[in-house]
Amino acid sequence: xxxxxxxxxxxxxxxxxxxxxxxxxxxxxxxxxxxxxxxxxxxxxxxxxxxxxxxxxxxxxxxxxxxxxxxxxxxxxxxxxxxxxxxxxxxxxxxxxxxxxxxxxxxxxxxxxxxxxxxxxxxxxxxxxxxxxxxxxxxxxxxxxxxxxxxxxxxxxxxxxxxxxxxxxxxxxxxxxxxxxxxxxxxxxxxxxxxxxxxxxxxxxxxxxxxxxxxxxxxxxxxxxxxxxxxxxxxxxxxxxxxxxxxxxxxxxxxxxxxxxxxxxxxxxxxxxxxxxxxxxxxxxxxxxxxxxxxxxxxxxxxxxxxxxxxxxxxxxxxxxxxxxxxxxxxxxxxxxxxxxxxxxxxxxxxxxxxxxxxxxxxxxxxxxxxxxxxxxxxxxxxxxxxxxxxxxxxxxxxxxxxxxxxxxxxxxxxxxxxxxxxxxx
Length: 426
Prior knowledge:
Layout: H1 2-34, E1 37-48, H2 51-55, E2 58-60, E3 68-76, H3 77-81, E4 88-92, E5 101-106, E6 111-112, E7 119-124, E8 127-147, E9 154-162, E10 165-171, H4 172-175, E11 178-186, E12 195-199, E13 201-204, E14 218-232, E15 235-236, E16 243-250, E17 254-258, H5 261-265, E18 270-272, E19 275-276, E20 284-287, E21 290-291, E22 297-298, E23 306-313, E24 315-322, E25 327-329, E26 337-341, E27 345-352, H6 354-357, E28 366-370, E29 377-382, E30 384-386, E31 391-393, E32 398-405, E33 419-420
Parallel strand pairs: 1-4, 8-11, 14-18, 15-19, 25-28
Antiparallel strand pairs: 1-3, 2-8, 3-7, 4-6, 5-8, 8-10, 9-14, 11-13, 12-14, 14-17, 16-23, 17-22, 18-21, 20-23, 24-27, 26-32, 26-33, 27-31, 28-30, 29-32
């Protein structure tokens, strides 16, 4: 009896289990039709810790971190449809990047913050390929370069730039292309100002401006405008007798004068105070005192300019002058007297600069005598000598003049050693 009852219960238990299983199966079948499994791709923002690169002086070059990634999920349709992009956190971790080069960074598995039962199948892209470059700092000297032109004789002096060195922080690849840093100055702007504020230009190795640095680094350029002017010298006084002033030879024939362009345009020379040569009988050196106009200064104002003053002895020479070339003035016009000089030539002692006396001859000299109020007989008459510039007479010569009375019937012949001389009316 008990066995019969046990078998009956065993049969009921199996039936119950089978019934439950069948019910579950039917439930899933109905569920699959009303709320089936499905897949969905959701675009989700991609966040990163890119700020860690700045602390390591690194920068991403030539590519960028994607703004979003696609997350693929699976689950019941109603659940999947209720999921949004805000239910996910997707992160790109750059903390392991520590040097330059190209690296593939894996996108970390999405973090689901919602309450729906879903399955995350993956992300697209699963990794990001990025190129990193080290940000380094390098110092470059700032050079001053000029465009345009200045009038002849003008130049820019005492030019300075502040700062004279700039620090450029950039990617290694960019820094390797920098050739020079220049403060450009247009010479046409230098009429009056002595200071300009400019933006430096950074040139690459091909001589082209690098646009990423345009207007980034300011600099102040200061300068002076100068003009080259001749030094003019002079003397005062007279050297000792028998000597002459030959020349002044300054150590430099010109100086650079600083001033405004208007002032410099009005100048043509810089004069030195006259050098005193009174009573000098030998060459000497002396300091020149330059007279600089008000508002101007010498570039090298502390320098001393000396000059050699050449004083040399006069050369002496005696010129033989034919008496036939001596003009007689103030003679008698009635014809009563005849005039003759009792020598064929006279000696004229002269002195002057050697280069002048070297080529001096009688044709360069004019001589004359005056016989005013002289009667019959022999007379010693001083000769008036006219000499070229730079030649002086050391001693005035004289001649013996014979004056002879004549009549209408008798003509007095001159003695053999007397030279007749024409007597122009005077």
